[in-house]
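cache lookup: miss for this entity combination. No prior model stored, computing from scratch. Input as submitted by user K.M.:
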Amino acid sequence: MAKRSIVPFGPQHPVLPEPVHLDLVLEDETVVGAIPSIGYVHRGLEKLVEKRDFKQYVYIAERICGICSCGHGLGYCMAVENVMGIEVPDRAKYLRTIWIEMSRVHSHLLWLGLLADAMGFESLFMESWRLREKILDMFDETTGGRIIHSVNQVGGVQKDMDSTMLNDVLRAVEDLQKELKPVIDTFLQDYTVQSRLKGTGILKRDDAIAMGAVGPMLRASGEPYDVRMLGYAAYGDLSVEPVISTGCDSYARCEVRLKELLQSFDLIREAIGKIPEGPVSVPVKGNPSGEYFVRIEQPRGEAIYYIKGNGTKYLDRFRLRTPTTSNIPPMVEMLKGCQLADVPILILTIDPCVSCTER
Amino acid sequence: MSKVSKSPWLLHYDASSCNGCDIEVLDCLTPKYDIERFGIINTGDPFQADILLITGGVNSQTESVVKQIYSQMPEPKVVVAVGICACTGGVFKECYNIKGGIDTVIPVDVYVPGCAARPESIIDGVVKALQILDEKQTALRQNGGDS
């Protein structure tokens, strides 16, 4: 029998910008077990809801994570609006949809770059991040921030997009789609990429469902589950179809995210075509009393927001279940049996967001 | 800054940031901002690093990691606190698990404010750090230390 050894991975390591720690149990070069330990980014943001009033907390919710910032703001605001019975104007719903789809594009391009970097494909990493700048420029123009946008507020959105901005977003999406074509072809057809991704990190459909995988992880295992189908924000008026792949491996996860980029471009175009005129927010009076669950589709998968109000301006409880939390058990399962050199790529394929997970 | 006398290597550590500043730090290395043109590259190894970029406020679990990384870096070394959380604790200051800015744990040379800090200001901070690195190098030589 081969000798067992434990290799610590992290918290400071070159693969991810975020600190995460894994104890990898090895038999020679093969991983037989992985024990994750987290807590390096824990700040205690859920508790802070007791010290900030419910309108101020939107800014904290957006800072749970810098990559999924737009979605966290949206999820929190939707939960408060549902408790208070506020009907958000249609134009605000469309603007929210456009911004969250833009943030999906930025998040997926960021992930593609990190994946290329983990494979050692430096030029592909640089190209993905160069294209991502186009979306960040659009965020800068429409919201005033590159990463943290602070556009959502309880009762609507803070800023409107005029027709010049909408046209600029359309043009940027057009350009991006054109320039993304060779990148997509490289990811899907290049020999080196395929040799690193195909057949690694197998997660069967039944296992994915049993272990509660969400988002692109689940869809890459062939399950057509996308929370956007519920029709929150303006998704009810738009044509959303889950992007799936039946490959069940790392390559399938990459393929799903690439196709979701194209889907997001279509959704942005469709939303800009249909956006109605009107106000972008309604005044909010009173304090929330009661509790509510909201589910939204973040770039990494389904996120669940829970709030409980007691009739004062401070909420009793805010709870968030992030997609990475759900994807950690399937990741640990995937790691078993892989080679040590494949570990960074397999961890990356779940698109881990430690900052959201630990809050 | 008149000239760059050294090609400094960066080490980046996230001490409980929201990711916002981290992806902006990475952004500095990619084609639009490209700090590699100053000879700066991002390394994962504290033993090879000259400049430590830290994002986020310090919490109880990262405190020892930050101290360890800092002690592993060779002299002379410069610490840049990126983002308002690293400077003072920022919006997370009142959280029960946040100790405050990076300067509560290790000495900080350059503060880069912003939420999230923009790549332009991060580059500005790194350029300031280069000057400080030069001064520290000179002081070290005069004291008969590392040549």
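stored under new cache key. Chain B has one domain: 9-141.
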